[in-house]
Amino acid sequence: MASSHTPRTRQLELLSPARDADLGIEAINHGADAVYIGGPGFGARASAGNSVQDIERLTRHAHRFGAKIFVTLNTILRDDELEGARQMAWDVYHAGADALIVQDMGLTLLDLPPLQLHASTQCDIRTVEKARFLANAGFSQIVLARELDLAQIQAVAQALPDTVIEFFIHGALCVAYSGQCYVSHAQTGRSANRGDCSQACRLPWTVTDTQGRIVAHDKHVLSMKDNDQSANIPALVDAGVRSFKIEGRYKDMGYVKNITAHYRQLLDEALAQRPDLAPASSGQTRFDFAPDPQRNFNRGATDYFVNGRQDDIGAFDSPKHAGMPLGWVSHVAADHIEVQLDEGVGPVNNGDSITWFDLQQELQGIQVNTAEALDAGQTRFKLALKDLPKACKDLRRQTVLHRNRDMAWDRVLRKKSAERRIRVDLHLADTPEGFVLSATDADGHYAQATLATEHLPAQDAERNSAHLHSHLAKLGATIFEAGEISLHMSQPWFLPPSQLNTLRREAIAALEAEREACRERLPKQAPVEPPAVYPEDTLSYLANVFNHKAHEFYVRHGVKVVGSAYESHEELGDASLMITKHCVRFSLSLCPKQAKGVTGVQGTVRAEPLTIQHGDDLLTLRFDCKPCEMHVVGRIKKNVLQQAKAEAKVSPVKFYRARP
């Protein structure tokens, strides 16, 4: 069990996302040690904000289990937004939040509450130098770039033994290094760094080479599969990861329950192998379902770069969810289809959704209106679809089907599906005045309640003992479950059920009060003095400096030249709109390193630029082979600049400009 005396670098934390307080509560119930959630504003998911009252409701529930609530304040801010962000930080502090997740360094120079600071994924932490700088600047927990491999993760963890290393283990992948993507802002005026990404990376693009030849037609070449580190949890623990983060503040209840439960089981297995480590919160969780990450929306699974560069990280055919294998079409009639299910697949339900790939390998899908079993074993089904079969593109005999919505599974997760309990040992003894009930929980907290009453001898000692045990064990409406129950009596006394229940309720209430009284807030780390020197002395727009406080921060830390954020509109020509470890050349088998040593090919494949086009949007792909990175190059659209000028006339805004 975690205790406040176990250093956080010796605890394993499962960190789950929550779109709102209800999802956050279910994440806690399904085994999360911490939840990250948007506050009333300034979070990197523009439409996932929550009221201070809801944050308070969530923190109250989480703190009962010793779990933590981290509030996202991780967009870049204009000067006129800093005061609102500062006030919000104080509001969520008073609501009980345990930490702020921050991208904008300008916030660190404000009068913030004594809340622990965690570095957002938008901080783009890829190197030991950057990680060490942020730790020295007052950040207690840092999330490393998703693109790092095990050796790079380990190098950071070993260099910073007192800093909690966080890493994304599941969910959607941004193709860009986080914080280094400006495609959305350049094309639509919606800034990913301000929580409003238009997701151009999920669109189909046509790729052409320098001679204008089409290399790939209408392929989702910037769309990644989804992150799934299930197989790598022990290796990540060994590398020094201590906070295991699930992506998904836009995701639904079923996703949060299922994925949290899945990784709770994997982390519990890891903890059983590592007695030197402790869980980061209290209680044991039991599930009423078998967690399965493949059942949620996903674009296929990849462990990305954790084990080095892989061939198969892209979801190039479709950014949609194909679902689980279902079977194949055995017959097509005018108003229905008949389906033969794969072995071991559960029956089709009314309301399920099925998918298939058409002849162009585009994913198609349709809802099942009614499903009727054609045999006793439920292996063949007659399906009436939302449209007639002839309206379904390329849905014919022998077509392989998947199911991307299973109503039976959805029903399981709509109900109560987990229970989280803390073990408590109870000890009943007699006193000269009556009785005393002592309660000691699994974390070592102790409380007691007394009852002044006369002593009534029991008529049947054995039945009386069973009666006392059964009533003391009734902890149903609490967060506890009975462990050892012991009786220490001078002789068998009878206690009426009403008195026994009152005594138990008072002891448990006292124990909860003791747990809350002993709960310590996470300490805020002071920046080192004199201020640590930033690893570089010149910063471009890639540093995302959008307010004068952020500029002041970097100057204080030794930076001589500070460019302004892309959103300041000073980069009007061609610029890197995205920097990514994903390489389209590599994925299309056009990488010079792949061609090395291949007879007849060596030397003929060069890392020349490629062009990608979607509609009127045209971007250039440039390849930096030394660090093995790709730059997506383009320029900001005129209409975005015009729109910004028009908006500034209506309501003037203040932000940092490098060129006043």
TrEMBL record:
Highest taxon listed in the record's lineage: Bacteria
Family annotation (Pfam families): DUF3656 (PF12392), Peptidase_U32 (PF01136)
Every Peptidase U32 collagenase domain range: 402-515
Protein known as: U32 family peptidase
